[in-house]
Amino acid sequence: MTVWEAVAVVIAGVFAGGINTVVGSGTLVTFPVLLAVGYPPVVANVSNSLGLVPGSLSGAWGYREELKGQKSRIAKLLPASILGAVIGAILLVTLPAKAFTTIVPVLIVIALVLVVIQPWLNRKLAHKRSHDDGGVLLWLGVFAAGIYGGYFGAAQGVLVMGIMGVLVSEHLQRMNALKNVLTAFVNLVAGVMFIFIADVAWLAVLLLAVGSVVGGQIGAKIGRKLPPAVLRGVIVVVGVAAIVQLLTK
Q1: What torsion, rounded to 10 degrees, do the Cα atoms 110, 114, 117, 118 define?
Q2: DSSP codes, 171-217
Q3: pLDDT in tens, 157-198
Q4: What are phi and psi of 74, to 5 degrees?
Q5: Where does the sequence pass through the membrane (predicted)?
Q6: Cα separations in angstroms, 171 against 67, 88, 118
Q7: Nearest alpha carbon to residue 25 among 185, 154, 159, 144
Q8: Rg (CA), the chain
Q9: Given this model, what pLDDT does residue 165 score?
Q10: Separation of alpha carbons 17 and 81, rounded Å
Q11: How far apart, in whole angstroms, are the C-alpha atoms of residue 165 and residue 205?
């Protein structure tokens, strides 16, 4: 990796850390950058998951005020995220590498659709009423999102927000704070597993970690003041670039 490539990875980490905190699709920035500097898709995905863990934790810490009073939700949903992350990570390393290069473009398309329709999801979240705290359906939805996050992770946060928006009545910022905790642990659990069962590009992990910690704090401070339309536009462009990169590699 050249110096300029290293700088590009750090900058991608900053963007991903901020986007993950506010939107939840930072992998669509970092993953194609890792592909562009020469890492194979599975190695890039594994290293990306590990590198973004500090940024996810940074974003969760930045939203600590909004987490007050949500201990029971965290205790209920965290096991679902962790179990899903374990299954997703196992799928990543047990399925053939060719399966990843086939599946991931489809996952990116799904993620991009979720990013594009996020304003609609936010409106649903703002007006939705729920009779309870989501119940079994919420647990299963978070579990499924954890599997997705352990396997790839792009737009994992958008998935979680959409699920909670349908099933739970709560303020958007408090939901976002909870989302940051759940996705942080998905990345952490999957990342720890990858250390033992997969090839990791440690330089990329370090560079992403440095950038994502900074980005997580920036995202937490700016929050929803960031222009969502601009963010979505950037994510869509980068996501399409990732699809092209995968299909032509």
Answers
A1: -170
A2: -HHHHHHHHHHHHHHHHHHHHHHHHHHS---HHHHHHHHHHHHHHHH
A3: 888 887 887 777 777 778 888 999 999 999 899 989 998 988
A4: -60, -45
A5: 7-36, 42-62, 74-93, 99-117, 137-164, 184-208, 229-248
A6: 11, 29, 16
A7: 154
A8: 16
A9: 73
A10: 19
A11: 32
